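Cross-check.
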Amino acid sequence: MTQLFALVLTICSTSTDCIEVINGTYSTQDKCEQIIFEERYFNADCRPVDIALHPDGVVITKN
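Predicted model, tokenized:
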């Protein structure tokens, strides 16, 4: 099975806490990091995706 990487953005506002959202998935970590550089995202991270059947949808786990 091929490993996928999710580009996760951390979004914070003055009225709420910070949340994390998935901006996209990529076939390699290098491609994911390239997008972060090209789009100049400052609060972003590439995380491996563990795809599991879960009632709440796809779960991204931190390593």
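Residues 29-39 form the longest helix (11 residues). The two ends are 18 Å apart (CA to CA). Passed to J.P. for a second look.
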